[in-house]
Automatic annotation (TrEMBL):
Keywords: ATP-binding, DNA-binding, Nucleotide-binding, Phosphoprotein, Transcription, Transcription regulation. Residues 1-112 form the Response regulatory domain. It comes from the Bacteria. This is Acetoacetate metabolism regulatory protein AtoC. Transmembrane segments: none annotated. GO terms for molecular function: ATP binding; sequence-specific DNA binding. One of its GO terms (biological process) is phosphorelay signal transduction system.
Amino acid sequence: MLLVDDEPALLVALKQLARSLGHDPILARSGGEALELLEGVDAVVTDYAMPGMNGLELLEAIRHRDDSLPVIFLTAQGSERTAVRAMKAGAYDYVTKPFDVDELGAVLERALETRALRRSNRRLAAERNLGRAVIGESEAMKGVLSAIERLAPKDITVLVRGETGTGKELVAALLHAQSRRAAGPLVRFNCAAIPPELAEAELFGHSRGAFTGATQARRGFFAQADGGTLVLDEVGELPPSVQAKLLRALQEGEIQPVGAGRVERVDVRVVASTNRDLAASARAGQFREDLYYRLAVVEVVIPPLRDRPEDIPALAAEFGRRYAERFGMHDVRLSPELISELKRAPWPGNVRELENAVARMIALSGGGEIPASAFTHPRPAEVEGETEAPPSGTLTLREHLDAIERSMIASVLAEVAGNQSKAARNLGLSRSALIDRLKKYGLA
């Protein structure tokens, strides 16, 4: 709770009140000082009349940074016009001085409840936009989700770091979905998937005739993300020549398409992700140090799944629900013994490997409760110098095709109310072939 007033005696009284309510007060004697202390704050109590930046100017600056942060005004008796202006400008509430302790305490409690509700609503809206639940039962992931909620409304560059498969793309999507840019485009650029000689043209665009094969002008990923968020996956793989141009785009908000003599203005928030230690790469001269500091204004580090096994039951249940629905299966459950086995596995491929493993077990099951015997622990990596075995949870091509076929058959059967002859005709199968597949997939 941030308390802002230029009168030391009033600040002491507010501090004592906040502590009596069980809150952690932070004190500021001016609006400028308050703006430097906003990180992690859940409510602001501010006086109106202060030297320099007054309370209304502070409110405007706060709303520009985080419009979900409740601001409570302290106004002198007879200053109703000021209070009305504050409420119209977006203040949560106001209390007249000298304030009644119980009244201010009640307003503070309501403000904090409103803050929590706004965060919850923002998370639910983000989940609806993403079409998936966001799961984080462990303290480590609660910390990550809390950081996302605080950072999303702030239009700053964020670096998301974590091992492959930990969910960096989900964190980037959440940052966009909970930001003021949520209605704008979310554009992804995989820095590791583009040949170095094409990376600049893909990122910044190119004019017609800029190089062999450029038969027409093309907007790059930066221009496509204008007004929204650009996610730079595996940003550590960008070639040095492109790193310099990316730095300019971040610093100046300007890009220059390849072969074009003009500079374009863009309004883009950048979220970068990497599985590397970019700080170490910068120190070793493998990545531009100035670009690293520009990207890592704030770093969000996602812990590996092996360090948060308490997240596995909820993740596995969500994946089970999702793939059972996709494959047209009903009443599919992961047994408690299976969940225990999943919690004991090392998961070198993290959440992505867990998802693949659950999808594989669902696809190969006949429905009902899936036993622990359906799961094979991932094999450890082979000795150094030998090829590492692929994660055992990864679906093979045959398993993917079987899952698709099972889903189609289940869907057609539902459409014809279980009439096998009609289903066989609709699927282009003989009745005997359909019966064989029904037995194979546990649908008989």
